[in-house]
Amino acid sequence: MSEKRLLFTKDHEWVLVEGNIARVGITDYAQNELGDVVFVDLPAEGDTVEEGEGFAVVESVKAVSDVYSPVSGTVVKVNEELESSPELINESPLDKGWIAEIEIAEGTQLDDLMNAEEYQAFIKEA
Amino acid sequence: MRYIPMTEHDRQAMLASMGISSVDELFADIPEPLRSAGDLNLPPALSEAELVRHMKALARKNVNLEECVSFMGGGAYDHLIPAVIKHLISRGEFLTAYTPYQAEISQGVLQSIFEYQTLIAELTGMEAANASMYDGATALAEAALMACGATRRNVVVLPENLHPEWREVCELYLKNQDVEIQYVPYDEETGTIDHAALQRLNSASLACVVVQQPNFFGLVEDVEPISDFIHQAGGLLVMAVDPISLAILKSPGEYGADIVVGDGQSLGNSMSFGGPSLGFFATTAKLVRRMPGRIVGETVDGDGRRGFVLTLQTREQHIRREKATSNICSNQALNALAAAIYLSLLGKQGFKEVAYHCLQKTAYLRSRLLEMTPFRLKFTAPAFREVVVAGEVDWENINQRLLKEGFLGGLPLKRYGMPDAALFAVTEARTKAEIDRLVELLGGMS
Amino acid sequence: MMNKTGVPLLFEISTPGRRGYRLPDLDVPEVPLEELLPAEYLRQQEPELPEVSEIEVVRHFTQLSRLNHGVDVDFYPLGSCTMKYNPRVNEDVAALPGFAAIHPYQPEETVQGALELMYNLSQYLAELSGLHSATLQPAAGAHGELTGLWIMKAFHEANGEGHRNEIIVPDSAHGTNPASAMMANYKVVEVPSDGRGGVDVEALRKLVGPNTAGLMLTNPNTLGLFDENICTIAELVHAAGGLLYYDGANANALMGIVKPGDTGFDIVHYNLHKTFSTPHGGGGPGAGPIVVSEKLAPFLPGPIVVKQGDRYVLKQPEKSIGRVKGFYGNFSVLVKAYAYIRSHGAEGLRQVSETAVVNANYLMHHLKDLYDLPYNRHCKHEFVLSGRRQKEQYGVRTLDIAKRLLDYGVHAPTVYFPLNVEEAIMIEPTETETKETLDRFIAAMRQIAEEAETDPESLRSAPHYTPVGRLDEARAARQPILRWRKA
Questions:
Q1: CATH of domain B84-341
Q2: Which pLDDT tens digit goes with each residue over B159-196?
Q3: Exposed end of chain B (fewer CB within 10 Å): N or C?
Q4: Is the pTM of this model over 0.90?
Q5: At what angle do helices C331-365 and C435-454 cross, to 10 degrees?
Q6: Would you call C477 and A39 a contact, using CB atoms and an 8 Å cutoff?
Q7: What kind of fold does domain B69-81+349-443 have according to CATH?
Q8: Which residue of C37, C282, C477 is in closest CB contact with B333?
Q9: Does A61 contact C473 at a Cβ distance shorter than 8 Å?
């Protein structure tokens, strides 16, 4: 997965948009901050989510982090592999560690998201 | 002072090393008006010998169960307690340890909790148990809240034959979480839950039905239809069980219960005027991450050696703060340890015998009362360790008379709106002679 | 021996037919089981309890105990937990049959000694706190917090102010504060700390308002610092119509020195297992009585003990919120705390606090050159260092420092708390330690600071001399094994 095609949020989620489907996960920076991920509380397929709203929870041994949806829409697919192998988020955050696919609601803007370069600059600042 | 080793010489040396001339300097940041003027109004300090004398004098003002024969139950029971327990739980490494946060030097507490969790899971027939809650009543309130969270519903059904104090605790916990409680009555004749009344509830909104087994009256509930009802309604079955009864009665796991709680005083813990005890808490694998309280899990160290740690901690208050499953941050570790020692001493056979003796001795009291006295039974359902005896008498007065003969009588149910009845408990600790004598005395008082 | 192989589980040493306790023979005529219980009520699958003899049980738990640290074993400077010595005589008196073998429903005239003790303990706690009435029912500090918040809620509702739905909590607060507020259905509003480690008064000024139900505060706070602005804080909260809750976790610093009630608090909880030396028992039982001001007294959970003439009776307060626990609280814990207070008296308790504060300042003074001290001022009974320097310069985390301390035979301080200090190391020595023990701890911490520089790897792989090495917590949480299962 080329990082170039991804867009990023200030809450350290990435999103890959193909057609009207947004695949969402957390960034390498985020997984590194969390440490060993031990559990992912996945949304249910069919859940509707709002932009900026928590829709999944990623847990490490001693930290919990909400995953905020970068887009509004409906969850159409979740990465069930994370149920038995939450460590995929550490090993492959941008690829095998994806969390869910969301069908983007009409009229959703993606303007606020950063590209890879902007995100790198953002985390350097932080 | 008794427990302060610091000498005047130590104090001077320490202050000097800090470049401080007096202890007062360390309190200089407290605004003067806030400092207590003069000493606290407390009684003068006692030496050890004086303290013991004073405490014995206070203790003597109580009638203790070594001086009388108890037939009182209602949530606290006079079971036999093996002598070994007090010696083992008095070991300083258990007694004076904190919560096992540093696992490498806390394997004793951690492994004993792991064993306790296993024993509770086995007793209840459930897949997992936590390290324990404050007591049975609070464990039940937390179970009801957990059921609401798991089902995203907010109506909890409590039976009217639930222990009145447990009911009060549930009301307080649930009311403050905007959970609605619906009560299901018991059948006046059997004393067990009225299944027809249960069926009439609007089932779509129910988070759970709570069943106490045996119920407050000591009667055994027919749980299967209740389990079917609530599961068809998409809610959970929460059982509040007596641990001793689990040796004989069908386990909550066998009934398909989703959450099981109970009070563990019966398992080797002294009565101590009602506390401390422990609340055990067990559930299914599916719901384990919603469980409140501490949980111990097995893992390995860098060399592959087995070890135990606190786990699934992200549910808890110190990490999730206002999003935690509960605010609880302790468990009743020493009481849970007593329970684990008790269950291992009794073992498979002994534990069954305790329950069997309770059942038989309760049945004996019941049959002798019916034979020898005009008293009758309030309810018809099968009883495990307690029996509600009815008669047109003043039970408080009867208890005063029994006390003069060295007997602590049954719990008068007047305060629970049943002036003609008293709840008698018979454990394995009672002898035939004691039961016979009680019946004889009651016969003379009817 | 056991350190290498571990202690087998009880279930692994089970041998069919063995038992560790024998009951008296059944002496009543037996009735066939089927006449007492319908067959469908009977258990099918029997529980897998271990089958072990008495000596095996004794050795098993004795061996387990030897894998555990305790105050009896060595120093336990766990911040916010007040791991002081637990006097043994208090265990003895709590075990007297007159206390340990009494039934909670015995007639009141047969438990006058127990009720007298509870009544007097309530009075002592009221005196210490500078408040009016107590309930001894809450089983732990967090339980006391919840009880206090329920009382707060009932009070506001009784005044027609049930809309007040916000509890203000400092960013340095114990995790139980926001969690308790959540349990009472309050919204949590966080107030930041100021440059001296206290509540940021200006920020608080903006947060209080018509929805403020109350503020929860520990004083001294979790940094071990006395909040000098407490009177202003109390004025702000009270002026907005809110109440002040005192989290008594740190009460060991101020006994006989400051009464929380005098500083504006309306509700106070005490952790009897901290301040009043009742043993922690590996995580409990404790007790978390709360004391409230006169106007809140009618809302206390019941029953409470009141004195009528020379008799003690149980009574439900007039507007009681109800009941927070079965029976009357963790009674035997109350007995031990009562005995502790009686052993000390007023002067003794003041000395306890003064000595605890001297000890903490002594440790702080002799460690602050090698570890960062975020707030450099006199502390009270505890203080918080930061391991930031060790992390940045040598890649050694606070966790590594904590684990290395175990090799020196002492328990680690509380780490990564409070949350407003990076790499926090929270140290509370208590008053019951000798100067030699404190010096040994200083030496260990200084040695570790040096090791961080010269041999960081030995810290990262610590502990080396404990019964097990660093345990894989990620593995435990990913694939939870929460019980033994029969193979």
A1: 3.40.640.10
A2: 999 999 999 999 999 998 989 999 999 999 999 999 99
A3: C
A4: yes
A5: 60
A6: yes
A7: Aspartate Aminotransferase, domain 1 (3.90.1150)
A8: C282
A9: yes
